[in-house]
Write a structure and sequence with these properties.
Elements: E1 4-11, E2 19-26, E3 31-35, H1 42-49, E4 57-62, E5 68-71, H2 83-88, H3 92-110, H4 114-129, H5 133-145, H6 159-171, E6 177-181, H7 189-200, E7 205-209, H8 213-219, E8 222-227, E9 230-234, H9 238-270, H10 282-297, E10 318-329, E11 332-343, E12 347-351, H11 358-365, E13 373-378, E14 384-387, H12 400-405, E15 410-413, E16 416-419, H13 420-425, H14 431-434, H15 443-454, E17 461-465, H16 473-485, E18 489-493, H17 497-503, E19 506-510, E20 516-520, H18 523-533, H19 559-587, H20 596-628
Parallel strand pairs: 3-7, 3-8, 5-6, 6-7, 12-18, 12-19, 14-17, 17-18
Antiparallel strand pairs: 1-2, 1-4, 8-9, 10-11, 10-13, 15-16, 19-20
Helix pairs in contact: 3-4, 9-10, 19-20
């Protein structure tokens, strides 16, 4: 029996059906990617599956006892407390006892006192009565597994770590189905790779929405798409989906063209009048009426975004030259001894973890910040257009069209005057949506609005700080084409690895100690060059990767323990290899199309090997400690 089954689900918010007779089944162990354009209803479908919304019609069947947890796009602003408090917050009364026990234990270690000890003892008894010790261990295990500090305040964390804490809160509920809505948004590359590795080893079912094509390709065992209210299922990988989707759209366009031609012929016939009134032609009249109704029900596919950049006056050959540049913030070196030359037509990607100083580097290169040491030379005739990842350029209270036109109903695009409504329709804003205040827009719509505003300005230097967040795959690909054809200079900050690979000609990468090194090519090219010049990069955080590797045995052990210690490195390597083999097998898209018993057995074996690996490391640490005593 499937974990979740949707049958003929319908939902509307007053307009056309957002979900139109949607059918879907989700089996245990599947990793399904949900695709669709911005505004297609993907997040709404997830909320329905999570039980946060009710459909207008249709049926949803969930396996008895199955737990479904959804992790939304945005980090809620009202969350307070320590990491441990936040992770255990979804566990109800038992979770409150666990949080109280954790707080009292921490205070007792610092303050001491009989009163605290008495309260701790009372909470212990209540935990025992509620069977809460397993819950407490579960919270600590998940916090440790995700590499979090339980006692740090949630508010003090970076955006990426906050999302990791919310993931921990979801996982501690041990969901059978985990729903992730744009989980890579605002994560840096290291955090995205960590999430990929973690999800590849996750034993439950996964339904996720993402614009990150590399993340999608690595994780998805199946792809579904929501388009004009209908849900379609596409077996195979992402490249196969793209090919078959294009074929399906072409076939649909041909079928619609044939239908419209026949409808036009019948409309011409009915206007002849006398023939249509003959009794023997009443069937043809009824058929025409049915065709009109069918044509009225057709939902046309929203057109593609139409974007064009306005080329400014040609800049000088030299755009920016930096020599020995250093910059510190509150005595912390952000950039140290950095030199580069950027020439007209270069497309530069900037890579680094969140908070490392990428936006600071842009400020230095554009002359908006002055270096503490070294010099920055700017070229002649520079016209800069800046895409801001924080969307600070948008006025929340003004409408879409006022944010672009500044109160005018006309905009100039490549020397041509265009009506603001027509221009915004190129970016998929209907006339009604163009008059909507910015505060009502979705993340994807805000990004499209920023692009629409940006592209009204002539420029020969285009600066884009995280432009890909919330954009659907089709708009991303169109933006890639636009940037590839752009004749000016591009400075691009992005964590989208596929976007970097497809667009940039070189990368500036933040490495240790404020060093920024330059590499030829995109993200994959940087990885290859770095491996050839530096030691291999450690894998993204996995619990076992953080442990020290076993060393040769020392002394003060019995013969039996000595032999056991000597054998542990080989055992750990064998278990590591088996774990990687199981994860590789489960990452194959065809794996979950096979026998369900085999899938369940693989999940059980995965848990067993992880437990044995934990035990082997614990035993090695114990024996190694005794040997060194």
């Amino acid at each position: 029996m499937p974990l979740v089954t949707l049958h003929n689900l319908q939902l509307s918010f007053g307009g056309p059906l957002l979900l139109d007779n949607v059918n879907l089944s989700i089996d245990r162990g599947e990793r399904i990617c949900l695709l669709g354009r911005n505004g297609a209803g993907k997040s709404t479908l997830m909320k329905l599956i999570a039980g946060e919304l009710r459909p207008d019609d249709g049926e949803m069947v969930v396996e008895k006892g199955a737990r479904i947890v959804r992790l939304g796009q945005e980090v809620p602003r009202d969350i307070t407390g320590s990491v441990f408090d936040v992770v255990s917050a979804g566990l109800g009364e038992v979770g409150e006892l666990v949080r109280e026990y954790h707080r009292l234990s921490a205070r007792l270690g610092v303050e001491g006192g009989d009163r605290l000890l008495e309260r701790l003892s009372r909470v212990q008894h209540e935990l025992e009565a509620a069977g809460g010790w397993r819950t407490e261990q579960r919270v600590e295990s998940v916090v440790s597994r995700l590499g979090l500090d339980a006692d740090v305040e949630f508010a003090a964390l970076s955006g990426g770590l906050k999302r990791r804490v919310l993931l921990a809160r979801a996982l501690v509920l041990e969901p059978d189905l985990l729903l992730l809505d744009e989980p890579t948004n605002h994560l840096d590359i290291a955090a995205i790779e960590w999430l990929e590795e973690f999800m590849l080893g996750y034993g439950g079912s996964l339904l996720f929405i993402t614009h990150d094509r590399m993340f999608l390709r690595r994780l998805a065992t199946r792809i579904i798409e929501l388009d004009r209210g209908r849900l379609s299922d596409w077996p195979g990988d992402f490249d196969n989906f793209l090919r078959r989707k294009e074929e399906a759209l072409n076939a649909q366009a041909l079928e619609n063209a044939r239908f419209d031609k026949k409808l036009a012929q019948e409309e011409q016939w009915i206007r002849q009048g006398i023939k249509a009134r003959r009794t023997r032609n009443e069937g043809r009249v009824r058929a025409l009426k049915a065709m009109r109704e069918e044509r009225g029900r057709r939902r046309e596919r929203t057109g593609r975004v139409k974007m064009e950049l306005q080329d400014g006056e040609r800049s000088g050959r030299l755009v920016v030259e930096a020599e020995g540049v250093s910059y510190a913030w509150e005595d912390r070196p952000v950039i140290r001894d950095f030199s580069t030359s950027i020439l007209r037509g270069d497309k530069i990607g900037i890579i680094g973890p969140n908070g490392c100083g990428k936006t600071t580097l842009l400020g230095l290169l554009l002359g908006r910040l002055q270096p503490d040491a070294g010099r920055i030379k700017l070229g002649a005739r520079l016209e800069v257009a800046y895409f801001d990842q924080l969307r600070a350029a948008l006025d929340e209270d003004k409408s879409v069209q006022d944010n672009v036109g500044g109160g005018s109903d006309q905009v100039m695009v490549n020397g041509r005057s265009r009506h603001i409504i027509g221009y915004l329709q190129d970016f998929l804003f209907t006339p009604e949506r163009a008059r909507t205040p910015v505060r009502a827009l979705s993340g994807g719509e805000r990004n499209r609005l920023l692009l629409a505003r940006l592209f009204t300005r002539p420029c020969n230097v285009l600066v884009m700080d995280e432009p890909t967040n919330d954009l659907d795959a089709e708009t991303l690909e169109l933006l890639e084409e636009l940037l590839l054809d752009y004749a000016g200079t591009l400075l691009l900050v992005s964590h989208d690895r596929a976007f970097l690979n497809n667009v940039v000609t070189s990368t500036l990468v933040f490495e240790t100690g404020g060093r920024v090194n330059e590499y030829v090519g995109g993200y994959d090219d940087w990885l290859r060059q770095r491996r050839s010049h530096t030691p291999a990069r450690p894998k993204p955080e996995k619990k076992e990767a953080a442990r020290p590797k076993p060393k040769a045995p020392s002394k003060k052990l019995s013969y039996k323990d000595q032999r056991e210690l000597e054998g542990l490195p080989g055992l750990i390597e064998a278990l590591d290899a088996e774990l990687e083999a199981i994860q590789a097998e489960m990452a194959d898209p065809s794996f979950y199309k096979g026998d369900h018993e085999k899938v369940a057995a693989a999940n059980r074996r995965l848990a067993e090997v992880e437990a044995r690996l934990d035990a082997a490391y614990a035993r090695w640490e114990e024996l190694e400690g005794s040997a060194g005593a």
